[in-house]
Amino acid sequence: MPATTAAAAFPSLTPQRLGRIRARLLAWHGEHGDDFPWRTSRDPYAALVAGVCSQQTQMARVLPLWRRWMAAFPTLAAAAGASRARALRVWGRAGYPRRALALREAVRLCLRAHGSALPREQAALLALPGVGPFTAAVVFSFGFGDDAPAVDTNAVRVIGRLLLGDLQPARESAPRTLAAAAARLLPPGAGPRWNAALMEYGARVCTPRPRCGGCVVATLCVARPRFERGECAQPLRAQPRFEGSDRQWRGRILGLLRERREPLRMAALLNALAEDMEQRARVRRLLEALCADGLAWARRGRCGLGEPPRGVR
Ligand code: SF4
Q: CB-side exposure of 312: number of CA atoms within 13 Å?
């Protein structure tokens, strides 16, 4: 949205109020913010890895995963040359392992189509596997240093509460409205610092149950009176049960395959994980699904992580 249109969309956001919000949140970040390495290195590949790592993952768990990946594959070319099994071993127990394969595939495509650099055009970036609007914005902002709003679930909470008066913005406001609010708030020339400040503020102060008492923008926030009246932000959605779920069982199968460098006999896999016929059928079914996703292989009574070794193909 052009700046003039964005300004018209939020008439109560006077230049003075906007200036105070920006100044206070940037000052808070200067004093309390964590600067994760990908936010300051201006390395598009490092930012891409961070963007993919942070999908569906809390920030506290992103840093060790990002470090592990960057230590194993410090460059785009190194990640592109990794086998699927190696990428999955480096990803480890971080969850949603299809992201590791998507990231590996994305850098392989990049290497073929763009050399060892990431493309700077949005359409080309969005065409890469595993790269959606948020990850692309992370690359533009932290990787290239552009003034692109990179809005994660924490930042969206701050934006929607401050400007729109929502308690749970992702539920109450349309994505287009939130995107316009994000564009309006972003201070020109300070995009990466601003994005980091909003993400951190949403993670530590304007949390699902916000700490309005100690908030540096409390006097400027439209949602604050609602919280003071005792209204509560409803959780976005209940997490599906993990215990006993297919997701947990997929994790068990992958965990066992990750431990083995050599192909594993199917019988050994079933004996290690299943206690009865029903569980054996479940392991077989899930292994098949893992193979279809490219996360595992099963052939001639043996199985393993990623792709089959040459002798088994
Ligand atoms: S006053 Fe409360 S709801 Fe508003 S930005 Fe601060 S912490 Fe968030």
A: 17
